[in-house]
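Lab notebook: predicted structure, single chain.

Context: the supervisor wants predicted structures on file for every construct in the current expression panel, including those that have not yet been purified. This is the next one on the list. No modifications to the sequence; it matches the entry in the shared construct table.
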Amino acid sequence: SSDLCYLVCVAAMALRSIGPVLRTAARSSWTCRRAGVIGARSKSDASSARPDIHIERIDADSGASTLHDRKFGPSSWDGKVPWERSSMLLPTSLHDDPDEEEVESFIEDQILMFAPMRPRPLSMQEVLDMLEPGRIAKFLHVEVPIRYAERIRWIQEIPDWKEVPELAAVHAQHVQAFRELRLVQRKPTLDAFTGVVQRAVHSQQTVRHTVARGMHRLYVERGEDYGCEFADSWLDKFLLNCIGTETLLSQYLACVSMGAGETSEQGRGVFSAGIIDPDCDVAQICRDAGMVAQEITEEHTGRCPLIRVEVYQERGIPRFSYIPGFLKFIMTEVLKNSCRATVEVAKTDRDVQKRPISVIVCADDHDVAIRVSDRARGIPFEVGQKVWSYLYTTANRDPAKYSEQANSLAGYGIGLPLSRLYARYLGGSLNLVSLPGYGASVDLFLTRVNSEQVETVPDEDAD
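Prediction complete. Output recorded below exactly as produced.
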């Protein structure tokens, strides 16, 4: 056993000696190590590679043969071209100068009409087939109201929802966005439609925390009937639906920006495929997320843990087709949890530095795997899967005081479960393993975006 311990020590020393440690902004520690391919496929598996995405901007002026080929090409997973759904024009009963009462009545009827409609999930190739703003606008003008109407219905199905201020506020935001989308015209230009989309995206930024606060209030005021079993299931479907809407609206704005000649270099998250980056640098996004987590932790605690990003791949830095904004959100939330746990368990600044947070990035031809590990003594066994509940928060476990002490570091209780939804939206997964007394690790598995991949959109009207 002594020989075994000696060999383990030698191996550990050897691993620590590989590669220099680079310090970023005198605050972060990034380590880049290259080793054998993790989970590499054999040559016999090469034929099982997933279909690549093809980026081809097809404008309205493209030749008839090109448009015909794309219309009936392999990109339509259900055999229907998404942008050729009927535009559902305003009914003639709504005259040119209706009063507010008539408009409200019309919108109420429209919500009732749209709510039972089934959303139309897109494949990633279909998203890329709609890089021309006019084409994706035509699809959104039908699809987004369906998703808004479904969420409005879900709120209305909660008994006495109007008595919950947060739910009433989210409901009002949704009705306003639905109203604007149904009343706006796409011609003669897309300017008015773009303005409506911008306002909808802006209003969605507060929805996640607001609706989560509403669920907490329901639980506090009405008891276990609105406990974890109800709240987690309801919020999962509601927020996953929101993620799909956010993706479509953001993709449209990115297409408009592309048409105006803007790129990702101008800091707008616009790439050659809209919000999808065909050459996403996973390690760099992890570093960026680490710096954000460090800044937030230092701002609220005065301490800044070390974060080490290690890359294990035979063929250079892992790059794949993905939505960078999603990955950065997930990694920032996960690293904030590790940073806060580290500074809370460490007694001194020196002790903080002795507990570096490790981020390991590896990939094969199909997937990318990221593991975040800390030495913050882990999560007690009795907590278990509660960390995935929207009603659980480590900052303040009293739901009645949910919003009093919440801040950007901790307290809202939606960081981990929402991150898992972002991973699931494109077929990935997020899992947590805790070793009480030692630390915790979070494993993020992401599937490379490919042409046949279809977004996950909850639908209670499915057959």
